[in-house]
Design brief:
Number of domains: 2
Structural class: mainly alpha
Strand order of the largest sheet: 1-2-3
Largest sheet: 3 strands, parallel
Number of strands: 3
Number of helices: 8
Helix content: 40-55%
CATH topology of the largest domain: 434 Repressor (Amino-terminal Domain)
Distance between the termini: 33 Å
CATH architecture of the largest domain: Orthogonal Bundle
Length: 146
């Protein structure tokens, strides 16, 4: 089972336990109910949306990450889809929070635009990075020096 599937399953379970319907969640998120259903069905949402769902559940994001780890998930791939392909640089805050909460293998991407972004991932203790456009456009060094 993929980590995205595990995370979405846990979010759905928490929503059921809290008695929060998709309609109620949609209202709290300022979205259409059909959009909430589609988002949870696809599992395609930025970390900021997961944060908003956690707030609706009154559940700390770090606690959510811990619960995922307790279910046996050992690797998480985090992509900041709002920054994906932009090369505007990474947003270290959410990645650092994920790293603090999740002790397993963590890979991240979205917004990488320079070697400084990869250095930040390394400094945060990530095991790898997902790089696309910046690599193709020669804005990052590959292979990286050991």
């Amino acid at each position: 089972m993929s980590t995205t599937v595990d995370l979405v399953a846990l979010l759905k379970s928490e929503l059921r336990s809290a008695g929060i319907t998709y309609a109620a969640l949609a209202e709290r998120l300022g979205m259409a109910e059909s959009s909430v259903k589609r988002m949870l069905a696809k599992g395609d949402m930025p970390l900021s949306r997961i944060d908003a769902i956690c707030r609706a559940l009154r559940l700390d994001f770090a606690e959510l990450a811990r619960r995922v780890a307790l279910q046996g998930v050992t690797q998480v791939i985090y992509t900041d889809i709002a920054r994906d392909g932009t090369m505007l640089g990474i947003d270290e805050g959410p990645v650092a929070r994920m790293r603090d909460a999740f002790g397993g293998t963590l890979l991240a991407g979205g917004g990488v635009g320079s070697d400084a972004d990869l250095d930040a991932y390394e400094r945060l203790g990530l095991q790898g990075a997902i790089v696309g456009r910046a690599l193709y456009e020669g804005r990052v060094t590959y292979p990286r020096a050991s």
